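tool=predict chain=A
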Amino acid sequence: MAALAPFMMLHPADNVAVARQAAEAGTEFRNSSGQVVVATERIEMGHKLAILPIAKGAELRKFGQPIGIASEDIAPGEWVHVHNVTFEHKDHVFEFGTTIQPLPVPAQPRTFMGYRRADGRAATRNYVAIVSTVNCSATSSRYIANAFDRSILENFPNVDGVIALAHKGGCGMGFGGEDHLQLSRTLAGFAKHANIAAYLIVGLGCETGQASFLAEEFNLVQLNVPSENRKKPVIMNIQEEGGVAKTVRRGVSILKELLPEVNKAQREPIPVSEIVLGTNCGGSDGNSGVTANPALGYASDLLVAYGGTSILAETTEIYGGEHLLTRRAVSREVGEKLLERIRWWEEYSAKFGTTINNNPSVGNKKGGLTTIVEKSLGAIAKGGQAPLQAVYEYGEPVTKKGFVIMDTPGYDPASVTGIIAGGSNVVVFTTGRGSCLGVKPVPTIKVATNSLMYNRMVDDMDINAGTILDGEKTVEEVGHEIFESIVSVASGEKTKSEAQGIGDEEFMPWTWGPVF
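tool=predict ok
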């Protein structure tokens, strides 16, 4: 096989190229016309090399799109990064529905082996949960979950585990206000989730986020508990139960009654059209938009073509690329809803004296990402090319088939929590720096953007998209690999994070309002 070029030019209109691997000073970039540019300094993997003269104030272009403004004159061969690039928000002329591309219909239907719930929904895992309404009941909820260790659960082989959905909020907010409703919507989304076969609700008793409000406002129901003789969820308030110890004893007793019923679940063939894929990226680098994200986008399109659902989230990492998504919106209303969420984030950031360009983290920048626009253009590649069917609020139930967007922050635990609350039953998470996220009760497949990190963190990464950089596979081939992994994991194959028991601590409902 011929030696791979050390730099990649991603689009004919670009004035930068991306280092395939770390390149020393003197390394040559040769364009399709045979023109040669010599690196004048070391360029790290995923970082950018100027391949044309770029005057101060001129646009930097990657993926064929502007990603920033040169803050000084940049000569060919120079390293392009935060020291010579500044962010400037660009006003776009928005189009709606102008680039809708119908996806090819697969020749044969596909199935996965999932759990069919009594109400018809499809599950990929079979968990029991304790829903904590407030941080004051978090420890009690964990005590109940911890009582069900491996020695007990090995008698129930079809039960994936007992989890405590504990968090840091639930009080100090306005009753019935947006924060209260958003937290309740998220907790209800988990309680109702197809992967949760049964649950208890545990509260303190005096909190704003009342358990009774949660159950009644969101019409929560429960598996029948023989000793309780009711279909409404069991609610235990510590103050009414007589303290922590009594609450825990009763909670453990009730779950012991539920486990045999939950264990009766059996996997059966279910169409892949009932997979709801959540996509997310974290610890991104300069290769995320070159390898893992477009490969995931290809897999997303495959799933949508089979009639499934794919959720793109992290609104702050759509910022600067939203004009490309509105062109795929099936209606102006859908496109305008996305723009409304973008404006909300601009206003929200301004309240705290900051901008969305502060989103790229220290690790993102070390990995070669310079501005939020560069990061966003790579991030939205996870959404493939399918038409945009709908835009959802955080944790809102996703009811549309096809490609959709959910408004979430870019912070990974909060973002994935919202996606799962909306109904995602499989998550694929891309990473360049090496994020190890998992959020129970949904399996998370992690895709590495480069082989260096994949080999270093092989116990945490499920798929290596670095093979694209290495010239071993195409984006489409890795996309097929991701799709097949989605089907296998939905059918019960354990991910690397599941094998290590990751996912109990990452449940993080997003609340954005004041704490009183």
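The mean pLDDT is 94. The first strand starts at residue 7 and ends at 8.
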